[in-house]
Model the fold of this input.
Amino acid sequence: HIGQTIYIIDQLKKELNMPDMKVIATGGLGKVIYEEENGIFDVYDPVLSLHGLRLIYGKNRNKR
Done:
């Protein structure tokens, strides 16, 4: 899976013509790749999705 992830990231950077695109690893398996392959990810945040859900909840909670 690490090789597939590296390939996808490289292809996205090429197709979007963004060689300096910031890549963020999230979740439990993101840590495995982040620690194994230095330089593929710029940042590792294990709870990024949860932070996003909290922000969405906060915005929708005030609309009732």
Summary: The longest helix spans residues 2-15.
